[in-house]
Amino acid sequence: MKRTMLVIVLLLSMFVVVFSQQQEKTYSVPESQLTAEQKAKIQINQVSGYAGLGKEIGDAIGGGLHSLNAEVNSFSESPAGKFTMFIIAYKVIGNDFVQFIIGIPLWLIGSMIWGILFLQKCYHKKSCY
Fold it and tell me: For residue 82, how far is the Cα from the chain centroid?
């Protein structure tokens, strides 16, 4: 529930940042009537506007991720968090781990039984058939 609320607050804060930028009055003038200096100034204003917007969005996302990181760390220290981390680890490597833990001893025991039976049949009776 907290995670959902955090995501909603993060998204709302991004929209507030995007729409809270103040717009200056603009006038439509054909580009041919502008000087080279005015054209350069317009391009600089556009680029700085995008850069400022990107910085604000980055700050909002960084703040949201920082608080999310703090929540995840506190959850991982709780007993429920430790159990959850164990379940995730088991889902990722559990099948291979169980096969290794059960398979190696089973293979060793089976090999020993086969070796004992082979020795009894072939070497003690002097015949392998």
Answer: 18
pLDDT tens column, 8-21: 766 666 655 555 55
Spatial CA neighbour of 85 closest among 52, 93, 6: 93
The answer to whether residues 46 and 105 belong to one domain is no
Q: Are the CB atoms for 76 and 85 separated by under 8 Å?
A: yes
Domain check: are 44 and 88 in the same one?
Answer: no
Q: Which residues are CB-contacts of 104 (< 8 A; sequence separation ≥ 6)? A: none
Residue 113: per-residue pLDDT: 95
52-78 tens-digit pLDDT: 778 888 888 888 888 888 888 888 888
pLDDT at 25 over 70: no
State how far the Cα of 39 lies from the Cα of 119, in Å rounded to an integer: 95
pTM for the model stands at: 0.35
Domain that holds residue 56: 1-17+40-77
Please, are residues 7 and 72 in contact by the beta-carbon 8 Å criterion?
Answer: no
Q: What is the dihedral of CA 116, 120, 121, 122, to 10 degrees?
A: 90
Residue 60 shares a structural domain with residue 112: no
